[in-house]
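Lab notes, practical 5.
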Amino acid sequence: MVKRRQVGTMGTSVFPCLFVILLAGSSPSRCAEDNSSASHKTEGGAEKLVLLNDIADVEAFISGAEVAVVGFFQEPESPEVSQLRLVAARIPEVPFALSSSSAVREHYGVTAATLTLFRRADKDRRDLNMDSEEIDADKMSRFIRINELRLVTEYNPTTAVGVLHSSLPLHLLLFTDKKSSEHPERMRRYREAAELFEGKILFILVDINLKSNEQVMAYFKLKKSQLPALAIFHTPDEKRDVLPLEEVSIERVKDFCNAFLQKMQKVREHFCVGYRMLGSHRKMLFLIGPLRK
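Output from the prediction step:
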């Protein structure tokens, strides 16, 4: 059983039908092993587990990566740990650690053998209970591939699940052609902009060469002739904005995000004023009512 445990202060967003359209066309299980190209390589790889039995060491390990995986197991040489070692070798771009310390498990609220994925992009985590069913290396790998979100996450049928369950309600999508010679520089700038909004906005890359992404592009009423383009999306109420770009620059991305955030702030302020006025009106009716009688 996969459980979501929130370590940040963000609330759970209400997930609209926008991203579900991907899942209709392709199964996450078929694509789980094809997501390695979307991940950024971690220098040095992760071919073996790092044993960490100190809370400060685990915290430093987690904070040092966009995505980090920790196996909380009472026995460091259990069969589950052997399977986890296989997974660590399969996914070298994700750092893996193991902790058998009762103090560490208590600190992270873990009571059973658990595989936990920590995400920097939305300050969140996902837990896989190893005691609920028989978990092997394939199931662990699929769990990681589905739930890994990064500062810039490439959108496809596998990562769609993690995007759907992100604690960040605001998503920024960059529609672009990965085959373009300008793609590496666009991504560098886009990633730098993502760091400015870490924990506030989930940055997503949408490659127009992926067939299923054509439906996402159609949702935002974008044509290939308008690309590259940015689309920002607020999941609770599906408010959105679109900006075709001649060039992806850090300033354009930053200005676009800030303008939308300011617009959302004004909406919230107007709502609060209206709610207070409604409250005062109801209070007056409550006071006047008995006098009329």
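Observations recorded by the TA: Residues 6-17, 19-46 have pLDDT under 50 and may be disordered. The two ends are 60 Å apart (CA to CA).
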